[in-house]
Design a protein that fits this description.
four-stranded mixed β-sheet; four-stranded antiparallel β-sheet; 10 strands; 4 domains; binds flavin-adenine dinucleotide; alpha+beta; Butyryl-CoA Dehydrogenase, subunit A, domain 2; Butyryl-CoA Dehydrogenase, subunit A, domain 3; Butyryl-Coa Dehydrogenase, subunit A, domain 1; single chain
């Protein structure tokens, strides 16, 4: 019988976020704050230096936006610098960067030109990542070596006209040929980044199989030559932002895909897609974070020199608040993508929910900041002569692709509820047959008693931050209690209760980010020998962020029981039914 009330299996694929839903703080996954190895530090410094000096002369984000395409020099330079092979293993001609270095460089590319980051990310984070993770040796030799040099550009083809978020509903098919040499691929994919530049595609399609004598369809991944007979492409999409990123439709008409180009087993396609996207999301988080800095760099310079009422606008507190909130959010977002990158590099932990937390938080932060930067710039913020309106347009996509933020919130909540849910199911069964299940019930009751009497504690937070961490421990305790009550009252219906899922996910995101900020600040304080004045910036930013995050999380948990859900649902359904948002004004 376990003494602690938590439900996460600490030995099997531990997850920080899943554990907090059970009231446990897995500090070992988040502390100490990762110290990049000397090799990573040197690699990052060298790559960033080279990239920055090249980009300063070559990359013109405004021109890319205006022309709707990259200059030839930009694409050639990315390949010559070796950036197109940055996270491809060395044995296939790549640089073999760790997640830490890759995401740091991703951030720099994103801050320089978000469209270029999509080109870079669609190629490596998702385009050829499936081959790196799941390819056979032959596939890796054949494709990765060319992807690493930029000779082949890769794209990831999952979305279809009828299946976006619900990827499993895809209609593309791959039928095995009678002679068993190839598959015949039919279907269409939309919104494919890098389409116009791509030579190799990772395509997901359904393969017919027989299960227990019944015909079924199983999602399977394939490597497809973008120039094979039967593959055609639409015109570039006219998009709001990231305009130089070439986005198009692909149509596959009786395309012969050799059996040796199947990626992984039949039926493993969906899992492969999820694995690819899990780590890919971290790049978007690092890119959004670095982008936030860059947007505010412009706004800060402007706020210092623009004067109104006889003083710089930066001296007004309404402007200062925007900088302070963005700074605290950015500090936490940076801490989170770094802690999560270290998890990816270390292995041995389930980081799927943490990468989702990072992506949601950072993408929403970047969007808020883009609007705040525009607001600080006043009228010129709205002018095409200045970069602010492009910031707003470019930042927006991150909340939509690689899993919309709604879908990722549902993923966080439902995945994290699984363990408490299963445990309660066992308890439910045990109560039906109490005599035989006395051990389980005893354990459960003991667990409840422990939970009611004690709350989790932070033991690795620096002593100077203990008081700041306290409300966070309280809210984790409240979250676990709230989750249990929710599961008891909602049962399986929780799958339909997205008002609650959103609250749970929001609380989890804030808690994860706050703990990462505490970890980062703890390391800073330790590095300063506990002298707060030497790292005043770290301490202030952490205190600001942790207090705000705990407040938001507390509100979210409280709303599990005190809310207006029924009324919200009624209002939304009335609007959907009538296709009219609310009653007309009484003026006709
Ligand atoms: C510029 C750009 C580049 C892209 N690049 C690629 C690429 O390279 N490869 C690729 O395969 N795809 C790509 N996509 C597609 C992208 O991943 C999808 O647009 C995204 O997954 C959403 O799918 P959808 O557009 O069909 O929206 P839908 O799934 O129809 O969703 C519409 C809205 O409903 C919400 N929603 C849907 N289901 C639920 C639910 N169960 N609960 C709550 N809310 C829900 C969504 O969050 C969203 O707000 C790209 C898209 C864009 C715009």
């Amino acid at each position: 019988m376990s003494k602690t009330p938590h439900l996460a299996d600490p030995d099997k694929n531990p997850s920080f976020t899943k554990a907090i839903f059970s009231g446990e703080i897995r500090e070992d996954l988040v502390f100490p704050f990762p110290v990049p190895s000397d090799a990573d530090r040197e690699a990052a410094a060298a790559i960033l230096d080279t990239f920055r000096s090249w980009a300063a002369d070559t990359v013109d984000a405004r021109k890319h936006d205006h022309d709707g395409k990259f200059t030839d020099e930009t694409r050639a330079g990315m390949a010559e610098l070796g950036l197109m092979g940055l996270n491809i293993p060395e044995e296939y001609g790549g640089f073999g960067a760790s997640a830490m270095v890759f995401n740091r460089v991703f951030g720099e590319v994103g801050a320089t030109d978000p469209a270029l980051a999509v080109y870079f990310g669609a190629h490596q984070s998702i385009g050829c990542k499936g081959i790196t993770l799941f390819g056979t040796e032959e596939q890796k030799q054949k494709y990765l070596t060319k992807c690493a040099t930029g000779e082949l550009i890769a794209a990831f083809c999952l979305t279809e006209p009828g299946s976006g978020s619900d990827a499993q509903a895809m209609r593309s098919t791959a039928i095995p040929s009678v002679d068993g040499t190839h598959y015949v691929l039919n279907g269409s994919k939309i919104w494919i980044s890098n389409a116009g530049y791509a030579g190799v595609l990772t395509v997901f399609a359904k393969v017919p199989v027989e299960v227990d004598g019944k015909p079924k369809q199983r999602v399977t991944a394939f490597i497809v030559d973008a120039h094979a007979s039967g593959v055609s492409m639409g015109q570039p999409e006219q998009k709001m932002g990231i305009k130089a990123s070439d986005t198009r439709t692909f149509t596959f008409e009786n395309v012969k895909v050799p059996v040796e180009d199947r990626l992984g087993d039949v039926g493993h396609g969906f899992k492969i897609a999820l694995e690819i996207l899990n780590s890919g999301r971290l790049g978007l988080a690092a890119g959004s974070s670095r982008g936030t800095r860059e947007m505010m760099r412009h706004a800060l310079e402007y706020a210092k020199q623009r004067e109104q009422f006889g003083r710089p606008i930066g001296s007004f507190e309404m402007i200062q608040r925007k900088f302070a909130v963005a700074a605290a959010d950015c500090y936490a977002a940076d801490a989170a993508w770094m802690v999560t990158s270290a998890m990816v590099d270390r292995g041995g932990a389930d980081f799927s929910l943490e990468t989702a937390c990072c992506k949601i938080f950072a993408s929403e932060m970047a969007n808020r900041v883009a609007h705040d930067a525009m607001q600080i710039a006043g009228g010129i913020g709205y002018s095409k002569e200045y970069p602010y309106e492009q910031f707003v347009r470019d930042a927006r996509i991150n909340m939509i692709f690689e899993g919309t933020n709604e879908i990722l919130r549902a993923l966080i909540a439902l995945s994290a509820l699984q363990q408490p849910g299963e445990r309660l199911k066992e308890i439910g069964r045990a109560f039906k047959d109490p005599l035989r299940s006395i051990g389980a019930i005893g354990g459960y009751i003991a667990g409840r008693a422990v939970r009611q009497l004690t709350k989790p504690e932070f033991t690795r937070v620096h002593a100077l931050l203990r008081d700041d961490a306290e409300p966070l421990a309280d809210v984790i305790h409240a979250l676990a209690t709230g989750v249990e009550a929710l599961l008891m009252s909602e049962g399986k219906q929780i799958i339909e209760r997205q008002f609650h899922q959103e609250r749970l996910a929001n609380a989890a995101i804030d808690i994860y980010l706050a703990v990462c900020a505490l970890s980062r600040c703890t390391a800073a304080l330790e590095g300063a020998g506990g002298d707060e004045t030497k790292v005043a910036s770290d301490v202030d930013l952490t205190r600001l962020f942790v207090a705000a995050a705990a407040r938001r999380a507390r509100r979210a948990v409280r709303a599990l029981t005190r809310n207006q859900d029924a009324r919200q649902k009624a209002v939304a359904e009335r609007a959907l039914e009538s296709a009219q948002l609310c009653p007309e004004v009484p003026l006709g």
